[in-house]
Amino acid sequence: MMNRIKRGLTWYLIGAMCIIGVAPRCFAGFSPSEVMTLSPAERPQELQKLQKFLENKMVRERLKDLGFAPEEIRIKLDSLTDQQIHQLALRLDEMKVAGDGAGVFIVVFLIAVLVVLIIYATGHRIVIQ
C-alpha cells in the first residue's frame, strides 16, 4: 500500500516538474506614462557618456569588425533623438563591460573555506610532502 503511494507521488512530482519546466519566463515592469525629454544640459552629458563607451578599445574593434566606420558611428549618434540617447545611456549604466571579478573571488574563497571546514570536522589531515 505504501509502495503504491510513493510510486504515485513520484510520478505526480515528475509530471509537475515537467509542466513547470516548460512554462516560459515572463518579465513585467512599469511602463512610463509620458515621454521623457532631456534638458539641454543632460543631452551633452549623455552623448559624452556614449562617446566614451564607443571609444573603448574592445567596442571600437568589435564595431570595426562589423563594418562600421568611425564617421558612420558619429553621424548615427548625432541623428539620435533625445529619448534614444537617454535609453542608451541608461542601458550603459546597467551594463558591466568587463564583469566583476570580486564576485568570483568571493565564491572561490567561500568554497575553499567550506572544504577546509569539512575536512577539519571529519578529522582528516592533509599532509603535503
Number of strands: 0
Unreliable spans: none
Shape: extended
Q: Report the span from N to C terminus.
A: 58 Å
Q: Rounded to an integer, what's the Rg over CA atoms? A: 27 Å
Which structural class is indicated by helix and strand composition? mainly alpha
What is the beta-strand fraction? under 5%
Helix proportion: 55-70%
Q: Mean pLDDT, as a whole number?
A: 79
Output the number of helix runs. 6
H/E element sequence: HHHHHH
Largest sheet: none
Q: How would you describe this structure to a colleague?
A:
The chain is mainly α and 129 residues long. 67% of the residues lie in helices and 0% in strands. It has six helices and no strands. Helix 2 (42-54) packs across helix 5. The radius of gyration is 27 Å and the shape is extended.
Write the layout of secondary structure elements.
Blueprint: H1 2-22, H2 42-54, H3 57-65, H4 70-78, H5 82-94, H6 101-122
Which tags fit this structure?
single chain, 129 residues, mainly alpha, 6 helices
